[in-house]
Amino acid sequence: MSMGSEFKAFAMRGNVVDLAVGVVIGGAFGRIVSSLVEAILMPVVGLLTAGADFSKLALTIGANAKGEPVLLRYGAFCQSVVDFVIVAFVIFMVVKAINKLQTPPAAAAPAAAPAPSSEQVLLTEIRDLLARR
Fold first, then answer.
1. What is this structure's pTM?
2. For the chain, where are the alpha helices, taking DSSP H only?
């Protein structure tokens, strides 16, 4: 089997394609939630914290060769953590809602009783004849 045909067989398996779709949708969903955090939630948090903008919080740890300050931007990290927590919570809620909407698999119908054998049919007829006498 050639390398190309092996790759094609690998890439066309159902779970690989499903994973690729999930990654693309997840990336787009992450950008939406990041926008929600940046444009809507963080300004409210900034208002509640007397105008503090977390994304700009930094600690100067020195200067580089050009004399520019080297910053440890912990505010951007905090905002990323908030983004992650919100994305994880929203995904949890979506999965929970989807699970609630899914119907449980239907119980298998009981198997129909097998047709009586010819012996059983004959014995039933004999019993019925004896009962009539």
1. 0.48
2. 3-11, 14-36, 42-48, 74-101, 118-132
